[in-house]
Amino acid sequence: MGARxxxxxxxxxxxxxxxxxxxxxQVKGTREFCPLxxxxxxxxxxxxLARRLGGESYLSWDFYKEALAFKPEVxxxxxxxxxxxxxxxxxxxxxxxxxxxxTHAPFLENDKARGVLSRWAVRWYxxxxxxxxxxxxxxxxxxxxxxxxxxLEKLGVRKDKIAYIPNGIPSLFFTQKKVKERKKxxxxxxxAPIKKIETLLEAVALMKEKIEVDLVGPEExxxxxxxxxxxxxxxxxxxxxxFGPLYDMKQKITMIDSSRVFVLPSQREAMPQALxxxxxxxxxxxxxxxxxxxxxxxxxxxxxxxxxxxxEELAGILQALFEKEYARVRKEAVQSVRQFSWDxxxxxxxRVISGT
Length: 356
Fold this sequence. Notes:
Layout: H1 2-14, E1 20-24, E2 37-40, E3 43-48, E4 50-54, E5 58-61, H2 64-70, E6 74-78, H3 83-95, E7 98-102, H4 116-129, H5 132-135, E8 140-143, H6 149-154, E9 162-164, H7 172-175, E10 182-188, H8 197-206, E11 212-216, H9 221-234, E12 240-244, H10 249-257, E13 259-264, H11 273-280, E14 284-288, H12 291-294, E15 304-306, H13 311-321, H14 327-337, H15 342-354
Parallel strand pairs: 1-3, 6-7, 7-8, 8-9, 10-11, 10-13, 11-12, 13-14, 14-15
Antiparallel strand pairs: 2-3, 4-5
Helix pairs in contact: 8-9, 8-13, 11-14
């Protein structure tokens, strides 16, 4: 979500809009804090003290007075079921300005992946806080995926209120010169339980070939420790490398290029950014069959899907991908994600904002 906010803010600022980001000061998945004020190019970032209401990212932070003082003409609020989006709606009413809600697809096909308390909170919010009478007060509700559209309609959002604007890929992903590929597997993303990376490690242990695995991304300490223990128990610890996060885009692209296969074994995904980035670089991509990945991958045409947690199925797919080139699948992967180029996405966002 943070990457989407920053990218669209910077691109809108480049096109002459004055853009300020309001955010909490907490770093997701950690107990660390960001500075209260920062700047990225032409974009001012103001962060506010926050307290956790539940989970790792459900926070409460007060920005009401500062937002009124800024007097925006347009507010883009990110993440449905978070308290700051309702505050944004109140501010917009006070200032008589446009307000858009970007949902970030927090929906599940069923509630099995949630705990009891979380299921109760979701049902309470959808039933009382965010039903149609609230959601239809936004100028537009912006879906980042197509699979969430039925969920929004079920909540009572009018079809004329919904716009589809996916996450974008910087143009550099289509233009940077490629480096030589090696016979290894890449996972790129947050190392957290929802990603089910242990499925990947178990599958690699079943393969005939001794393939290396690169795990790249910020890691939740307890989960990172569990993955290291898992790799050691499987006898593959020497082939599993932990790199930490990569924030430089060129370095990230080089890391993607260096691997033959990209794997995303998550329990769930909204719109998986790392997946479309790997596809833009012509990688052979394998993802668990959740709504976010199914929205992007057409099996055996531009990538491959396996059932969530199915180690044997994943191992079989990986083995095949190291035995054959699959040039057609690689080419189709690139073509299928060109629609997500930020140049195209930001044009669509500007049209929605302006009402044209």
